[in-house]
Automatic annotation (TrEMBL):
The keyword Oxidoreductase applies. This is UDP-glucose 6-dehydrogenase. Residues 313-415 form the UDP-glucose/GDP-mannose dehydrogenase C-terminal domain. The keyword Nucleotide-binding does not apply. Pathway: Nucleotide-sugar biosynthesis; UDP-alpha-D-glucuronate biosynthesis; UDP-alpha-D-glucuronate from UDP-alpha-D-glucose: step 1/1. It holds the Pfam family UDPG_MGDP_dh_N. Its EC number is 1.1.1.22. It is an enzyme of class 1 (oxidoreductase). One of its GO terms (molecular function) is oxidoreductase activity. Keywords: NAD, Oxidoreductase. Belongs to the UDP-glucose/GDP-mannose dehydrogenase family.
């Protein structure tokens, strides 16, 4: 099976590499020649554990190719995956400009009938609109079949998720197209669910919205726990053991970020609104999340009164560990707020440190050394639960901070470890250690 993938962002690159790994011949296409040049040299353009080795292996096997020429990449492709971005527009809806352009490129260069698989997250109804767009531009006699095949991988564990996913959703108009897609994916050995195109598109939004709901729910419970003297970690453990609830995505913290949940929840609210449906539940999920991102600042102001002149060590920039992605990271809200309140900010991140000044215009120093960030600071604020921060002996705060005061947005340490180390410890949904 000859496959082309348009878009070498997160989803596109991982999809292309994984499809080559299971035996297909894949050409990944991107309009950015610099990206393509790097990829052709075997350099992955995103940070993702395990991706580089797999990419190189398949380039050497000559099963994986990269080009910035649509004509070259689409030549003879039986199946074309569209995996371009659908970023958020100012009104919260998804920007479909890139996917439309990719579809027009397919229509222009398709020499034979082709199956177009949409991997990008697109509002319900988009697949069919994209099909119509292609049909109105393709040369006569060429058939276009469409399939919705949403992606469920998480950044930071994308390779693992691709090979160990819970399900592969295939939404098509006909059985033949679903058969082809099922055959392509068979080597993954993951259960396939066949459905119609609209339901497939909705499964993606509903899944992300539900996971975001779980997070906002546990965060609200955490906020209540703080008022009532309960411990949210204990509550989540007790809740998660009920298999109807499940333990995943019940980790309280300073809210969800990243390129998916914020964008997709907003897009679903917007989509519902366009169809005169007021999605109040999801609106509350978003509101809870926005407030949750401010929590550590509120806790600091309660503790210090004013942050003016305080030196704050911010631990973590990325929206979660094992990624260098800063999109919608709570750090983007917290660091400018700290600077606005007159604090001096030194920020540590093991992978994303050099991106700080590109994303945040407020004055701050960025470092890959945790001790440099902590040294002499008045307090620490944990934003990302990087493994090295979680593994760190809380005694380190006593040793390096001016005063051992820690505001932990990710509940990295147990209450007893914090007590034992003698730090003043404010976390999420648990009793303060003073
Ligand atoms: C998410 C989904 O998990 C994937 O299934 C989906 O494919 C992807 O979006 C997408 O639509 O492309 P991702 O954004 O990479 O994946 O990251 P997650 O691991 O889901 O984390 C999202 C955010 O939620 C992070 O900020 C994380 O810190 C937060 N989170 C997650 C919590 O605060 N608590 C939890 O219990 C879990």
């Amino acid at each position: 099976m000859k496959i082309a993938v348009i878009g070498t962002g997160y989803v596109g690159l991982v999809t292309g590499v994984a499809l080559a790994e299971i035996g297909h011949t894949v050409t990944c296409i991107d309009v950015d020649p610099e990206k393509i040049a790097e990829l052709n040299q075997g350099i992955p353009t995103i940070y993702e554990p395990g991706l580089g080795e797999m990419m190189l292996r398949n380039q050497k096997r000559r099963r994986l190719h990269f080009t910035d020429q649509h004509r070259v990449g689409l030549d003879g492709a039986d199946v074309v995956y569209l995996a371009v971005g659908t970023p958020q527009l100012a009104d919260g809806s998804a920007n479909l400009r890139y996917i439309e352009q990719a579809a027009l490129d397919v229509a222009e260069y398709a020499q034979e009938s082709v199956i177009v698989v949409i991997k990008s997250t697109v509002p319900v109804g988009t697949n069919m609109r994209i099909k119509q767009l292609m049909l109105s531009h393709v040369r006569p006699g060429i058939a276009i079949r469409i399939a919705s095949n949403p992606e469920f991988l998480r950044e930071g564990s994308a390779i693992h998720d691709t090979f160990h996913g819970d399900r592969i959703i295939i939404g098509t108009e006909d059985h033949e197209t679903a058969d082809v897609l099922e055959e392509i994916n068979a080597p993954f050995g993951i259960p396939v669910v066949r459905t119609d195109v609209s339901s497939s598109e909705m499964i993606k939004y509903a899944s992300n919205a539900f996971l975001a709901t779980k997070i906002s729910f546990i965060n609200e419970i955490a906020n209540l726990c703080e008022k009532l003297g309960a411990d949210v970690e204990e509550v989540a453990k007790g809740m998660g053991l009920d298999h109807r609830i499940g333990s995943a995505f019940l980790k309280a913290g300073i809210g969800y970020g990243g390129s998916c949940f914020p964008k997709d929840t907003n897009a679903l609210v917007q989509l519902a609104g366009n169809h005169h449906h007021d999605f109040n539940l999801l609106k509350s999920v978003i509101e809870v999340n926005n407030h949750q991102q401010q929590l550590l600042i509120e806790k600091m102001l309660t503790r210090f009164g004013s942050l003016h002149g305080k030196k704050v060590a911010v631990l973590g920039l990325a929206f979660k560990p094992n990624t260098d992605d800063l999109r919608e990271s709570p750090a983007l809200v917290l660091i400018p707020k700290l600077a606005e309140l007159g604090a001096e900010v030194v920020c540590y991140d093991p992978i994303a440190a050099n991106q700080g000044s590109k994303w945040i215009s407020a004055p701050a120093v960025y470092t890959k050394s945790v001790s440099k960030a902590l040294n002499g600071a008045d307090c620490a604020m944990i934003v990302t639960d990087w493994p090295d921060i979680k593994r760190m002996d809380p005694q380190t705060f006593v040793r390096l901070l001016h005063e051992p005061i820690v505001f932990d947005g990710r509940n990295c340490y147990t209450i007893s470890a914090a007590r034992k180390a003698g730090i003043e410890y404010y976390s999420i949904g648990r009793p303060d250690v003073i």
